[in-house]
Specification:
By secondary structure, this protein is α+β, with helices and mostly antiparallel strands. It is built from five helices and seven strands, in the order βααββαβαβαββ. The protein is globular, with a radius of gyration of 15 Å.
Length: 164
């Protein structure tokens, strides 16, 4: 397995992994739909970066670092933070065949380091309240629960934050 930051050449692999997760999700309310405005910026590095893990040239895990307030503004405000000071870790998925290998924790640590290099002072993440594994991973990373939102009036999200 190998980690690397994704670029536009990885678009089909990224979209394929997201499509697989969306269509096979046990808990549909844990994965809000991705807005088209966000999809349009998947490889706009001023908006976001994705780190991925590949096995046999196939993307098996991904985590995003969202830099633009359009993507994370509501979550930052729910945590009492200025969106300009924030980067958000999100759209984190691991293919079921690769779970239990600490891939998400490893990728999240890389994203925290990148956010620090970009002079962000806070990292946030939004997770469904019942996603125990996701919450535990964020706490292992050093985040604490700072707020709550109901995204799109449908999707409950606990907001975790960490000063970096």
């Amino acid at each position: 397995m190998s980690f690397r930051y994704l670029d536009d050449n990885d678009r089909d692999e990224l979209e394929g992994l997201f499509e697989f997760v969306e269509s096979n999700a046990t808990h549909k309310d844990w994965w809000p739909p991705i807005r088209q405005e966000v999809r349009d910026h998947f490889f706009d590095f001023e908006w976001m970066r994705f780190v991925g893990n590949f096995e046999d040239d196939h993307l098996v895990a991904v985590a995003g670092l969202f830099l633009h307030p359009f993507v994370h503004g509501h979550e930052a405000e729910a945590a009492g933070l200025d969106p300009a000071d924030v980067a958000e870790i999100g759209r984190c998925v691991v293919h079921p065949s690769c779970r239990g290998k600490n891939l998400m924790f490893s990728m999240s640590k890389q994203l925290v380091d990148r956010a620090v290099m970009m002079d962000k002072t806070w990292i946030i993440a939004a997770v469904h309240p019942d996603n125990v594994a996701g919450r535990k991973s964020l706490e292992q990373l050093g985040m604490t629960e700072k707020g709550f939102i109901l995204q799109d009036d449908i999707y409950p999200r606990c907001i975790y934050a960490m000063h970096v």
